[in-house]
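#struct-help
A.M.: can someone run this one for me? Single chain, 183 residues.
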Amino acid sequence: MKRYKFLKICAGIVLSALIIIPLAFSAVSYSAENDPLVTLSYLTEIILPQMKKDVSAEIDKKIAQSADVINIITTPDENADENSGSEEHSPLGTFTLLELENGKCVYTNSVLEFIVRPGSSVSALSPFPEQGIADITNAVEYLDGDEIKINSYCLIPRGNDGRGIRVNNELSYILVRGDYYIG
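D.P.: on it. Structure tokens below:
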């Protein structure tokens, strides 16, 4: 029986040594520099260029989408003739720049916002003796024939009632937002 116990103890020691000794040697000899999970060259030669390519593609995609939106907003309607008196409107609620010659008038079908740009001379048109065009910037009401100051943010509050603006100089630039027609 003693012998049997002795064999068990010896077998346990040998088995433990067979397990512990290789683990000890592998722990001592392991170095992250010799066997990394991902090498630096793999990161710099494969992963980084792919990331740059993906980011550039995403940026180009966003720029193209933005350019499409800008193109929609700024491209004038090629079928519309400014001198025909046809109804027009600013796309997507943005301001449209009108370049108008002397004597041209802008009327509205609904609420119209406009800003007279520098170098322009524009006067108010209104069939009403006490109602005209509201200058939001300067808190003034322009009545029929009053000259509108440049860079003023103005509002025609209703459409189809005869209110509008008339160009008084050779060439005027007006930013408009809303439904309008040129007469």
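A.M.: thanks! The two ends are 122 Å apart (CA to CA).
D.P.: also worth noting: Helices lie at 2-29, 40-74.
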